[in-house]
């Protein structure tokens, strides 16, 4: 490539580390870029494991010291794929060192911390992006275009469910996702954050919420070895300190109503991240388990032909899709991450804002926090609007 290099440092190298590595490896091959992403250095706490990862995935260097990595002169972007408890400290240090920041969701655990992160990237004048990858699926981006162009009229309802089943077995051992200090919350922030982002992207700002959360399995076998969403038990047991499930109702500032359900205890639901949106002139339905499909109902169709029609969002003129395979060839989970790497690279190259950004990440945290406030007060809670 003849473009200037864009040197990337990745912090965290397991589940999301792989997804982000795949994105950085692939993006310049399928998308025309104005900068050339270079996989410069990958970082984790276990020096041997991270060195092996670097070798396997093609990172030039590895390190067990993120504080040193974020200050390196040969790093332009810091990509954070570590548990949520680390996002604020790493993002702020990276921004203060003048690096662009790409951070996994949830951005952080409290609005106060989210505001500090936002202030740090703004003060440094760097680009910032939070990885709400599902809005970058072609079918979801298409839904946004259709809503904006009035295909379903005035939006009145959104029903979001994000259901998984990987924690349904009470013998599944502890890992960081079940500890409040590392994960912030359970299904609420892990899955609910994605639904909130989709709802904000497609419908608008959420103004008020009321909800509940529950931990059904309060104790689990202690952690032995764990890798991503699989684990082997160690000795003894440990208390679970996050929710298994969260439910809430929402009033949007534009008058729409929403319902949200997130759980990791729904047998048979693997990654059932679904929304149904009803407007005055039609409806749109999407589910990640069939991620290329968008179901559309239009009241404008002749009455004898009304019914949901399925759009397969793999045509060349569907968002992002034309960069991949010939029409009709399905995309998968990893493609959304490549779309994020594309958006960030181009926003840096062209000095344009990047979405979803840290404000989106912090606004999502404000909704999560308002649900917690509503549980505390057993009443509706207002969502703080972040500038
Ligand atoms: N957008 C999406 O679809 C998804 C987003 N996520 C989000 O991505 C983030 C990471 O999750 P995931 O990849 O599943 O987690 P994993 O447990 O698979 O990986 C976490 C990584 O972070 C490293 N790490 C952990 N603690 C620290 C620390 N204190 N300092 C530096 N490195 C650390 C670990 O390596 P080591 O132990 O060697 O330090 C490991 O490489 C979370 O915020 C999660 O919510 C997760 C899944 C999907
Ligand atoms: O998108 C996702 C898929 O599932 C993971 C495990 O619950 C989540 O962390 C993640 O954000």
UniProtKB/TrEMBL annotation:
Keyword Oxidoreductase applies: yes
Span of domain Gfo/Idh/MocA-like oxidoreductase N-terminal: 6-132
Entry coiled-coil feature ranges: none
Domain of life assignment: Bacteria
EC number: 1.1.1.292
Molecular function, one GO term: 1,5-anhydro-D-fructose reductase (1,5-anhydro-D-mannitol-forming) activity
Family matches, as InterPro entries: Gfo/Idh/MocA-like_OxRdtase_N (IPR000683), Gfo/Idh/MocA_oxidrdct_glycsds (IPR050463), GFO_IDH_MocA-like_dom (IPR055170), NAD(P)-bd_dom_sf (IPR036291)
Keyword Oxidoreductase: yes
Location of the GFO/IDH/MocA-like oxidoreductase domain: 142-284
Keyword vocabulary terms for this entry: Oxidoreductase
Pfam family, one: GFO_IDH_MocA
Protein name, as recorded: 1,5-anhydro-D-fructose reductase
Species classification: Bacteria, Pseudomonadati, Planctomycetota, Planctomycetia, Pirellulales
């Amino acid at each position: 490539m003849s473009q200037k290099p864009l040197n990337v440092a990745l912090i965290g190298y397991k589940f999301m580390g792989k997804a982000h590595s795949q994105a950085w490896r692939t993006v310049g091959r399928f998308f025309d870029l104005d900068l050339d992403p270079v996989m410069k250095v990958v970082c984790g706490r276990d020096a041997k494991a991270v060195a092996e990862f670097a070798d396997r995935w093609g990172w030039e260097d590895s390190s067990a010291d993120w504080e040193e990595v974020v200050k390196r002169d040969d790093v332009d972007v810091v990509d954070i794929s570590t548990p949520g408890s680390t996002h604020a400290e790493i993002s702020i240090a990276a921004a203060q060192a003048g690096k662009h920041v790409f951070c996994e969701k949830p951005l952080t655990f409290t609005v106060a911390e989210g505001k500090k992160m936002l202030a740090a990237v703004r003060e440094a004048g760097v680009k910032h992006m939070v990885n709400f990858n599902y809005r970058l699926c072609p079918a979801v981006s298409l839904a946004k275009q259709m809503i904006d162009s009035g295909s379903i009229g005035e939006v009145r309802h959104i029903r979001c469910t994000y259901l998984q089943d990987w924690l349904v077995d009470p013998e599944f051992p502890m890992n960081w996702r079940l500890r409040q200090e590392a994960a912030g919350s359970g299904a609420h922030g892990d899955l609910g954050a994605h639904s909130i982002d989709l709802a904000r992207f497609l419908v608008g700002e959420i103004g008020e919420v009321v909800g509940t959360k529950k931990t059904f399995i309060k104790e689990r076998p202690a952690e032995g070895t764990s890798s991503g969403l699989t684990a082997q038990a160690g000795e003894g047991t440990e208390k679970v300190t996050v929710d298994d499930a969260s439910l809430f109702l929402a009033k949007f500032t534009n008058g729409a109503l929403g319902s949200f359900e997130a759980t990791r205890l729904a047998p048979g639901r693997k990654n059932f991240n679904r929304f149904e949106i009803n407007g005055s002139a039609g409806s749109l339905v999407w589910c990640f388990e069939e991620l290329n499909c968008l179901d559309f109902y239009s009241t404008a169709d002749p009455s004898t032909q009304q019914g949901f029609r399925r759009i397969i969002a793999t045509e060349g003129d569907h968002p992002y899709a034309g960069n991949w395979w010939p029409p009709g060839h399905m995309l998968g989970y990893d493609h959304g991450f490549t779309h994020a790497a594309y958006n960030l690279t181009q926003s840096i190259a062209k000095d344009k804002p990047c979405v979803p950004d840290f404000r989106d990440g912090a606004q999502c945290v404000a909704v999560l926090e308002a649900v917690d406030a509503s549980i505390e007060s057993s009443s509706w809670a207002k969502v703080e609007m972040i500038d």
